[in-house]
Amino acid sequence: MCKRVFLCAAWIGLCLFLKNGSACEPCLSTLTLQETARAADLIITGRKVAQYPPKGMGAVFGGPDWIRVEVYDVLKGQEQRDSIKINSYNGMCGYGVVINDEEVYIMFLQKAQNNMVDYDSVNGGCAVKSLLIKNGLVAYNDSMVAMDIITVMIDEALMPPNP
């Protein structure tokens, strides 16, 4: 009986440790594209050109701590630099911007609260973080749509409401 109680207590403890120590907090809700665009300090098109830790060195958890992105175009906000540092993974959780190498994306960013990176994802990652651009089309809602449609959607989201 004592052995069963011990094993049961150990099992419960292990489950609680794994739940609290390794699980990423899910978003209770996620901002729409329009809400994300309004909340963003910066919206750019660009591609990942570097990451830390570098490829091959392996991240201890999930993915790189941060990525360096080459800025192609600024759709909202002010950014004069050709490249910026963006938060990617927080430990094993992809709360920041997580994108593939060599692909071009639209990225929705907020000014970072720390000095380690320049920008972070909008709303702690509970928003649209990036949209893949391929052959002039943007991956949005399980479809490929024209870039012009996405830029119009962003522009409309940024317009002041009609009285």
Give the end-to-end Cα distance, rounded to a whole number of Å. Answer: 72 Å
Q: Mind summarizing the main beta sheet?
A: 8 strands, antiparallel
Q: Tally of extended strands?
A: 8
CATH class equals: Mainly Beta
Number of domains: 1
Structural category: alpha+beta
Mean pLDDT: 86
Outline the fold blueprint.
Elements: H1 2-22, H2 33-39, E1 42-52, E2 66-76, E3 83-87, E4 104-111, E5 119-121, E6 130-134, E7 137-140, E8 143-146, H3 147-158
Antiparallel strand pairs: 1-2, 1-4, 2-3, 4-5, 4-6, 6-7, 7-8
Description:
With 163 residues, the protein is an alpha+beta fold. It has a single domain (33-158), classed as OB fold (Dihydrolipoamide Acetyltransferase, E2P), CATH 2.40.50. Helices cover 25% and strands 31% of the residues. The chain is globular, with a radius of gyration of 20 Å.
Quick synopsis:
With 163 residues, the chain is α+β, with helices and mostly antiparallel strands. Helix content is 25%, strand content 31%. It has a single domain, classed as OB fold (Dihydrolipoamide Acetyltransferase, E2P) (Beta Barrel).
